[in-house]
Amino acid sequence: MSAIRVQRLDVAAPRTILEAGLAEAPSNLDSTRIVSIGDELDMGTDQESILRGHGTQTRAETGALVASVAGVVERVDQLVTVKTLRTRYVAEVGDVVVGRVAEIVGKRWRLDLGSRHEATLLLSAVDLPGGIQRRRTAEDELTMRAVFPEGTVLAVEVQSVHADGGLALHARSARYGALAGGTLVAVPGALVRRQARHFQRLDGRGVDLILGCNGGVWVAPARPDARGVRGHFGGAGDGEEEGSALRAVPASVQERQGVARVAQALRALATLYLPIDAGSVAGALQVADAVGVATPDMGSRAYLTALVEDVAAGRVATAADRGQ
């Protein structure tokens, strides 16, 4: 990667500042670079032995290898591919996802997860009110809209991926179900890291996060329920009375301000295409507090510049520590 020099940080684009800082850090991905559609991929002296992968094609006139999509060049041995920066969500079994009910058809809810294929939640994959264990009846099917009406935000888990790519979901755990009392922030799913815990609480902020692998991030005031489980669930599995109580808990002005600030931090990270997890969100909030930026201004150029400078400085310092 060639070095990037930024003469004036006050007029440089935030992304340019980030690349300038990262260029100074040692990396084992020196051959990785961002290309646009039609850019030639120069693989050096072994051009003829290169295998063409997804996102590449050969130019008929010259035989040169060019990118057919905009993204990052990746090379594994002789195979060269271009991975797009923004893609539809590709599910894996066990993923925690957050999405809205788009339609109710038959004995299933169809959810909008931003995935390539249809995602469905069967009536049999949801706990009945009160946690009753019995076979679903025609009466249960008629009351599906009362359980999860269209537009309801749900936290569910990917149970299986069908051969055609369709997703089967389930909400049989107490942690899954309908979400209430917060806001849904949509970010690119590629930025959300798969981790052991996708239900997080930001210490000192009084805010809970559900980091959906599909890019749906739920932000809400921290409210431990009667079972001691962190969440904001009003799903069928929680019982009607308990779900109603969770929905009825009003948020104070301070709590709403905290939720809005975290949501803005998420949008800033997504704008800069930076990885999103509890740590990166906490770091973005610390930068906002340090520069004294107001919540409505967390999408401004000044804040984005401060954020990328902090990220670049942190990565350079980490790389230097590893080199010692």
In short:
It is found in: Nucleus. This protein is of the alpha+beta class.
Secondary-structure topology with pairs:
Layout: H1 14-23, E1 34-35, E2 51-52, E3 56-58, E4 65-67, E5 71-76, E6 79-84, E7 96-105, E8 108-112, E9 119-126, H2 138-142, H3 144-147, E10 153-161, E11 167-171, E12 177-178, E13 183-186, E14 199-202, E15 207-211, E16 216-221, H4 240-248, H5 253-271, H6 278-291, H7 301-323
Parallel strand pairs: 2-6, 9-11
Antiparallel strand pairs: 1-5, 3-4, 5-6, 7-8, 7-10, 8-9, 10-11, 10-12, 13-16, 14-15, 15-16
Helix pairs in contact: 1-7, 5-6, 6-7
Descriptive key words:
disordered N terminus; 7 helices; 5-stranded mixed barrel; 4-stranded mixed sheet; OB fold (Dihydrolipoamide Acetyltransferase, E2P); alpha+beta; 16 strands; 324 residues
Low-confidence stretches: 1-11, 21-31, 226-235, 237-248
Question: Which band does the percent of strand residues land in?
Answer: 15-25%
What is the CATH fold-level name of the domain at 96-249? OB fold (Dihydrolipoamide Acetyltransferase, E2P)
Report on the biggest sheet.
Answer: 5 strands, mixed, barrel
CATH architecture of the domain at 96-249: Beta Barrel
Q: Helical residue percent?
A: 25-40%
